[in-house]
# Entry
Amino acid sequence: MDKYEIFKKNINNLIGINLDYYKEKQMKRRITSLMNRNGFEDFDEYFMALKSNKDMLEQFINHLTINVSEFYRNPAQWSILEKEILPELIRKNDNKPLKVWSAACSTGEEPYSLVMLLSKFYDLKDIKVLASDIDEEAIEKAKLGIYSEKALVNLPKEFKIKYFDKVGNSFKIKDIIKNQVIFDRIDLLKDPFPINIDLITCRNVMIYFTDEAKELLYDKLYRSLSKNGVLFVGSTEQIILPERYNFKTIKTFFYTKIN
Ligand SMILES: C[S@@+](CC[C@H](N)C(=O)[O-])C[C@H]1O[C@@H](n2cnc3c(N)ncnc32)[C@H](O)[C@@H]1O
# Structure
């Protein structure tokens, strides 16, 4: 077994992240560059260092998980969500509150965007969004809810004014939005999923997965959705032949179940 194979096994034992499910070339390149930056040339030595150095391990996890996000990422799709997907979903749900899950929420921009958007349809007190990620540090940042102005460029102005406090050069999300989000750590490739979810956003995470991991994920997402539930994916993550996984396309990037 080559050293990288052993490294992947060791990492899985140490932190429970299975790197076999991530696209090999891309992941190996990322890890090698970080390893070299830390002054190591050899995977065995690097692993020994990660095992004994908590800061280095945290940096490694951070580097792996790629947390880039922003509010209303790909705004045209959020507009379709608002104008076409949500009204239909709410109608089919007899106007009852929806169960919503942001399934790789990173530092919180996506679940908070969902709460703000849903506030156009419901009282804030009736909105609940589950937000999860594999990366606990990202979740901690999400709970803090402090963002640079850059993260807000695509967010509708009205939301920026209404739901943020300016703190120095940063923007802090108000508690009335924050309180409607429940954070949890869920590894999409390993952990059980919640059920009966009406809207799942699973965006800009599948691109890192192998085809095998994606298939596993589609199946889990299918079972997690309610009867009329909708899956919203990232702008490079269209499902090829969705029918194979019992999904049908409602709009590009939006899928529902073939029941
Ligand atoms: C690029 S961010 C996407 C954030 C947000 N969904 C968006 O579209 O802006 C990718 C996130 O996926 C998370 N991630 C990677 N592998 C994961 C896994 N196996 N389970 C859950 N989350 C994972 C990372 O920690 C990271 O926060």
